[in-house]
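Final report, closing paragraph on structural work. Over the funding period we assembled a curated collection of sequence-structure pairs, and we close with a single example.
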Amino acid sequence: MTVPSSPGSPNWVDLATSDLDGAIRFYTELFGWTAQVSGDEFGGYTTFLLNGLPVAGAGPLFGAGQPTAWSSYIAAADADVVAARVEAAQGKVLVPPFDVMDQGRMAAFLDPAGAPFSVWEPGTMRGAEVFDVPGALTWNELNTRDLEGAMAFYGSVFGWTFREAHVSGLPYVMCERDRAPVAGMQLMVGSGFPDDLPPHWLIYFAVGNCDAAAEHAHHLGGRIVHPPTTISVGRYAVLTDPQGGTFAILNNRR
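Its predicted structure, as stored:
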């Protein structure tokens, strides 16, 4: 991953959950995080720390019917400019840019295929401060049924370029910014992607041992959606937390 504060690079992830206390118990046990709960002005928003450095966040659901889910944030130099580009590229602005006190400025969107994502324009809070070590974010991946459309959209909005790659023999698209990889994309085909599964960004947290981490998550009340599997970059699994939030873990070879 590129420098996280660099515009166009993923720089934060957070969880909207139906049970914030339960999520704090699950993720602190699973990843060794500590939880820093904000004051009332932030609605109990919780920042997860790894060795004292912010790696992710969590907060309560905003409204009835909202599912428990992880969100990916991409760094923006100007969230308002990104919002204008999203609309011009046929995306949808779900939450217009707004200030989060002096910490930064954020907005939430849907790409043309319906995959949600957000941007974070750093203020006093830059985003995650550590990546690619066990317990930290290591990869972001778009699963979509319109790969060509996704490349056109994200290329227009963030200036990404793309190159074809293969992961264990399967087609894969690497998204790059200034010739450095920032994310991946793959087509939703096969039995692993049911027809009712919408396009989505999947986040990957690094772990030291994929099998042990998956088993630990299961004992903590999570569910193993895709069992530990070896691919060309390492060993990964897809999990859900006890409230249904989906995420992946990866023991990579980098």
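The first strand starts at residue 10 and ends at 17. The helical segments are 20-31, 79-88, 147-158, 210-219. We thank the funder for supporting this effort.
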